Amino acid sequence: MTSLNVNIAGVMLKNPITTASGTFSARDSGAFYDINELGAAITKGVSNVPWDGNPTPRIAEAYGGMLNAVGLQNPGIDDFINNELPFLRKFDTKIVVNVVGKTINEYCEVAEKLSDAAIDMMEINISCPNIKEGGISFGANPVMAAKITKEIRSIARKPIIMKLTPNVTDITEIAKAVEAAGADGVSLINTLLGMKIDVYQKKPVLWNGMGGLSGPAIKPVAVRMVYQVRRAVSIPIIGLGGIMTGEDAAEFLMAGADAVSIGTAALVDPTAPVRIKNELIEFMEQNGYRNLRQIRDAML
Q1: Residues 60, 17: Cα–Cα separation, whole Å
Q2: What is the pLDDT of residue 300?
Q3: What is the pLDDT of residues 212-227, one digit of tens each?
Q4: If residue 214 lies in a helix (H) or strand (E), which one and from where to where?
Q5: 11 CB-near residues (< 8 Å, 6+ apart)
Q6: How far apart are CA 96 and CA 91, in angstroms?
Q7: CB within 8 A of 66, min separation 6: which ones?
Q8: Nearest 5 degrees, angle CA 195-CA 199-CA 201?
Q9: Topology of the domain covering 6-296
Q10: N or C end: fewer C-beta atoms under 10 angstroms in the chain?
Q11: Which residues contact 299 (CB under 8 A, 6 or more apart)?
Q12: Is the peptide bond before 189 cis (omega within 30 degrees of 0)?
């Protein structure tokens, strides 16, 4: 009997398939598959007040993936709790809320409100620009990453998963810093910074100039970083970055991830999370894996 159960920071998921933040809407995605099929639903980023996001164009195709500079558009934490959360609670799927902010106080305000809400975990996006530090990402250096983790951990009454940016020299240093500061887990990787230029219009395709690259093009980088971080920390890892098939999911698990998130694949094929789960089960049955731990330990 194949078991897909996995414990992430004390929260038991019935399978390792989660949704990548920014690519999932329970109402929209639920039109294509049963949300109950997911191990966890990770929401779009939620801020303390509504964010408008960036002007268009803010999405562009790229070789092997896509670029986005949406700017974390969302209606804010109060609207999320009043409107989106009640709908999500209808499903037998764990709820992980992605938290964003421009200052530590903004993050903490959201974490405080979510601590009293009917959610299971928070995923803290520390790729956001810290406006008090000249726009540098909170996850750009170990000291800053540790500081925001410690502040949120002191307030949050739910497990916190720190979402790490790959746009750093050594991601293991960031992972070790957030673990030491009290993180219950990490998710990686967020998008790689990229750019596309329209050579006929002689200007960047995205209004913002640069954006986050996601999709299969970044998978080898993501697998490498998960592999490195697994050997640097002991807390759970949610791996993501270009997962398109069940074999891709197995590769992340073998690199050291405990669970995986599906993002760009679901924008190409809205049923991708469920398809990938079924393909992972097929891979496990064909190769004699009875549980996820056996895959994760395969290269140890």
Answers
A1: 26
A2: 76
A3: 999 999 999 999 999 9
A4: strand 210-214
A5: 40, 94, 120, 121, 159
A6: 13
A7: 59, 60, 213, 214, 215, 264, 267
A8: 105
A9: TIM Barrel (3.20.20)
A10: N
A11: 254, 255
A12: yes
What pLDDT digit, counting tens, does each position of 83-136 carry? 999 999 999 999 999 999 999 999 999 999 999 999 999 999 998 765 565 556
Residue 20 is classified by DSSP as P
pTM of the prediction? 0.96
Token pair belonging to 156: 């949050």
Provide the β-strand partners of residue 40: 18, 94
Q: Hey, which residues are catalytic here?
A: 128
Q: Where are the domains of the chain?
A: 6-296
Which one, of 16, 14, 35, lies nearest residue 270 by Cα?
Answer: 35
Per the DSSP assignment, residues forming a β-bridge with 2 are: none
Percentage of residues in the chain with pLDDT exceeding 70?
97
As given in the structure block, the two tokens for residue 210 are: 């640069």
- Quote the tokens at residue 11: 């929260």
Q: Tens digit of pLDDT for each residue in 31-57?
A: 999 999 999 999 999 999 999 989 999
> How many whole angstroms separate alpha carbon 180 and alpha carbon 182?
6
Number of residues assigned to the chain: 300
Per DSSP bridges, beta strands 129-130 and 136-137 are antiparallel
Rg (CA), the chain: 18
* Dihedrals phi, psi of 261, to nearest 5 degrees: -115, 140
- β-partners of residue 261 are 18
